[in-house]
Specification:
This protein is mainly α. It has helices at about 1-20, 25-35, 40-90, 95-125, 130-160, 165-170, 180-200, 215-225, 225-260, 260-285, 295-315, 315-330, 335-340, 350-360, 360-375, 380, 385-400, 410-425.
């Protein structure tokens, strides 16, 4: 029991690290643009390099996990991420950053595939739903903390009042004009520690249900020929593009149109975007017990569109609050779209999940589109593209026809009544 609790704790720590790494780019964006003198399009290649790794690795990672098991894949994943963070720490240049982010994205994609089945076994199937929600809260908490940690790190390095522990550690490792790159030394240390911890940990044997097993390439090709699979692939693509499209560009938007300092207001707003997304997950748990998930999705999209409009067109002090409220509105969309997708398929859920995870590349492609449009017409206009992705998510709430609907209190009562009538007959 103690060993299993240890593994669950290790999985939660892994979720924390994944989130801390993944969602920091939005807070870094203005600093990176200034340091490397980038256009918006070139800046967009940074998240592209990170998220395209999900498209490359999600399906192969599922096959690798089945062959080599979770512990070896997790060690390999953190080792790959470590190499990515270390090369950029040592050689802080734009092109090296692209390679670094791809390697870190590859590691994170491998981890995402490995840890969810492991959490089910280590924590027990009966606790899987609770542990999954707790993992998402930890994920959101790390995203909230990361920008604040970045601000602390840079302020400590730029503090002219005197020496401090951060200065003494990093002063000889990083260029003075690139203080933000100190974060990647921190990442390197985090990854190395995780490699060591997991290497000496004993993992339980994960026996996947037949439905959870990732099929061969033939199974994936067959699924991609199905209309439902393609429609939900686009849905996840649109969601991740929306989420990252707002979180990655909001700090740059606040600086460009309202003059807010990226290291204070910008980073804090990015943090609160993820913080409100976590709070929204808790609210979503209650709503999903009361209402049909498709209706919640429709309301959430409308809410996100309204708050996005307020953020893009309202005064600066309102935008500081409106952007986090977009995060609050987006919070339920991932789980709803993912569950609608899996509940619309009768078989091959493991392979279908891999395909849906591949759709995370939406976070790569849509950033490029926003950046390109931003260079052509201005960042505000570039962010208009998010309305298209929200429109597609809205459409899912209309056309989705899952085989199994989410169980609400009213639905449970209806099913109970039908069972009683059937027994009487």
């Amino acid at each position: 029991m103690k060993r299993r609790n240890y593994i669950v704790g290790l999985i939660f720590l892994t979720f924390f690290v994944i989130s801390f790494i993944t969602n920091i780019l939005g807070a870094l964006n203005p600093n990176v643009i200034q340091s490397f003198n980038l256009s918006l399009t070139l800046s967009a290649f940074l998240p592209f390099s990170f998220f395209i790794a999900y498209g490359v690795m999600s399906i192969p990672a599922g096959m690798l996990v089945e062959k080599y098991k979770e512990r070896k894949i997790m060690v390999a994943a953190f080792a790959v991420a470590f190499s990515g963070a270390l090369i950029f720490s040592m050689f802080p240049h734009y092109l090296v950053f692209l390679i670094s982010l791809f390697l870190m994205g590859t590691g994170m994609a491998m981890l995402q595939v490995a840890i969810n089945p492991l959490l089910r076994v280590a924590g027990g199937e009966e606790h899987f739903a609770f542990n999954s929600v707790l993992a998402q809260l930890i994920f959101g908490g790390a995203s909230f903390i990361a920008p604040l940690f970045l601000t602390y790190l840079i302020n400590s390095l730029q503090n002219e009042a005197g020496s401090n522990i951060v200065k003494s550690i990093f002063s000889n490792l990083i260029p003075e004009s690139l203080s933000w790159t100190s974060l990647y030394w921190v990442f390197s240390i985090m990854f190395l520690i995780m490699v060591i911890i997991i290497s000496f940990s004993k993992f339980p044997v994960v026996e996947r249900k037949e439905d959870e097993i990732a099929g061969n390439w033939g199974v994936h090709k067959g699924l991609f020929k199905q209309k439902t699979v393609i429609l939900y692939f686009i849905g996840i693509f649109a969601y991740v593009g929306t989420e990252q499209g707002v979180s990655y560009w909001l700090s740059k938007f606040l600086y460009t149109y309202h003059g807010y300092d990226p290291l204070t207001y910008g980073a804090t707003t990015v943090g609160w975007f993820w913080g409100m997304l976590s709070i929204g997950c808790l609210v979503g748990l209650v709503l999903l017990k009361l209402f049909d998930s498709k209706r919640i999705l429709l309301v959430a999209v409308i809410s996100a569109s309204v708050f996005l409009s307020i953020a893009l067109f309202g005064p600066g002090y309102i935008a500081l609050y409106a952007f986090p409220m977009v995060g609050f509105s987006l919070s339920v969309m991932w789980s709803i779209v993912f569950s609608l997708a899996l509940n619309s398929a009768a078989s091959h859920h493991g392979s279908f999940s891999g395909i849906l995870c591949t759709a995370i590349i939406g976070g790569a492609v849509i950033q490029l589109i926003i950046g390109w449009l931003g260079d052509m017409f201005g960042l505000r206009t570039g962010m208009f593209f998010i309305y298209l992705t929200l429109a597609y998510l809205f459409s899912i709430g209309i056309w989705a026809k899952p085989i199994i609907s989410n169980e609400t209190i009213n639905l449970k009562k209806k099913l109970k009544k039908q069972n009683v009538r059937a027994e009487n007959v």
